[in-house]
Specification:
The chain is an alpha/beta fold. The protein folds into two domains: 3-238, Alpha-Beta Complex (Spore Coat Polysaccharide Biosynthesis Protein SpsA, Chain A); 241-344. The chain is 49% helix and 11% strand. Helix 1 packs across helix 5 (116-123) and helix 6 packs parallel to helix 8 (222-240). The radius of gyration is 26 Å and the shape is elongated.
Amino acid sequence: MSIDAASAMISQSSSGVSVIVPVFNEERSLPLLLQKLLEVLSRLPNRFEIVLVNDGSMDRSLGVLRELALDKPEIKVVDFRRNYGQTAALMAGIDHASNEIIIMIDADLQNDPEDIPLLLAKLQEGYDVVSGWRRERKDSELRRNWISRVANRFISYVSGVKLHDYGCTLKAYRRSVVSDIRLYGEMHRFIPIYAEWQGARITELPVTHHARQFGASNYGLERIFKVILDLLVVIFLRKYFAKPIYLFGGFGMISILASFATIGVAILLRLFAHLSLILTPLPLLAALLFLVGIISILLGLVAEVLVRTYYESQDARAYLVRELINFDGSPARRREKDVARCAG
């Protein structure tokens, strides 16, 4: 789709756009980035704002942001007291954004602001999340590209959400699918997975990727281990958050069954091989497995209590409703009517 065609499609909608930019030591790229963003966004019919989150930069990034925001009310700056990481910066951007559509983009000029109209046009087709795909990525082939491809395939396989590029920051979201999400660690790349839990319609769009112009990447290979650990958390939350007893209790039952099998083997060795129980570690292993099983089941019960406490204290529900048809008023109002009807 061309830029002109995308702009024509966007003109049918008046939804506001909030562009969120996490910033960490990007003093040289910021003036050019904001110039490009303002040029692109000013051509759109949507009202817009640019929310830049200074994530504890140690260079002049904050000073540059102050200067650029002086006569531009569309530029808004959130300054962290220290470095909290990209996930926290994106969450702060979402919390402080005021429009219905959220666009996330990196500050290092590797994402192209000219792709924003294409993302918005794709949203207008009825999607809730449009994820950028750096199909022709301008990074080190071995150190970044190959590792990224392997990681993306693994995440897609485990999560069931098929995307080619989870690591691309350039994404568009409807606010309704991200406003209640709370992320920690390196989980910003998993926002599409959280959105999919809420029934969001997700698609992918190839976007332009440029070589880095200034500075060096802040990402190292140690990030891989953090992503793997965060993915384990995502898997747990997806499958077992509402019923943790299935995980803890299931492991506990397997452990208890293994303890019985172990003591059974020990007894068979005693009967047929005339091997004394005290000469093998099997009785000790059986006792340990049984104890671990009991503890796991008890942990599952504690987790069940915590989950119920969460839902009831937050007045949360274990389901999400997309739309109500032919319902009159709020649930509270309907309950009042039911009480009045019974009293009559």
